[in-house]
Amino acid sequence: MNTSPAAKLTRLRIRRGRPGVESAVVEYALPVDAAPSLLDGLRWIRAHIDDTLAFRYSCINANACKECMMRLDGKVVYACLAPLAADRTYEVEPLLNKPLVRDLVTEIAPAKERLTANGEPDDD
Ligand code: FES
């Protein structure tokens, strides 16, 4: 991976936050060859810049788990399938219609499939 100053960069402006706390946008620059997809870029950021960034995925790029849904420039995408280009700045945000858990993680599981922190079924 080319991380020299001349490497082509892409920028992700990621809305971060948690319930009850005002969210903030944090911008990250990363080498575009490290991030053919948005999910690759998020994983690169977490490995190299900020290990507190929260996002969810499971199958990585099989388009099978549907857990990587988020918004990219206002459109709902699967992060593992959303390509990134060099010399671009993207806005990355959590889903609007689901409760926020943290950063890009939203509660996407149906209530009857969730457990509480005590391991009990979540009846909400
Ligand atoms: S990571 Fe499974 S569909 Fe994107």
Query: Taking strands numbered 1, 2, ... along the chain, how are they ordered across the largest sheet?
Result: 2-1-5-3-4
The SSE order reads EEHEEEEE
- Name every ligand kind in the structure: FE2/S2 (inorganic) cluster
Shape: globular
Give me the count of strands: 7
What is the SS-derived class?
Answer: mainly beta
Largest sheet: 5 strands, mixed
Taking pLDDT < 50 over at least 5 consecutive residues as the criterion, the unreliable ranges are none
Please report the distance between the alpha carbons of the first and last residues. Answer: 46 Å
* Average pLDDT, all residues: 89
Amount of helix: under 10%
Describe the structure.
The protein has 124 residues and is mainly beta. The protein contains 1 helix and 7 strands; from the N terminus they run ββαβββββ. The chain has one helix spanning 38-48, and strands spanning 9-18, 21-31, 69-72, 75-78, 89-93, 100-102, 105-106. Strands 2-1-5-3-4 form a 5-stranded mixed β-sheet, with helices on one face. A hairpin with a 2-residue loop joins strand 3 (69-72) and strand 4. It binds FE2/S2 (inorganic) cluster (FES). FE2/S2 (inorganic) cluster binds at residues 57-60, 62-68, 78, 80. Residues 57-60, 62-68, 78, 80 line the site of FE2/S2 (inorganic) cluster (FES).
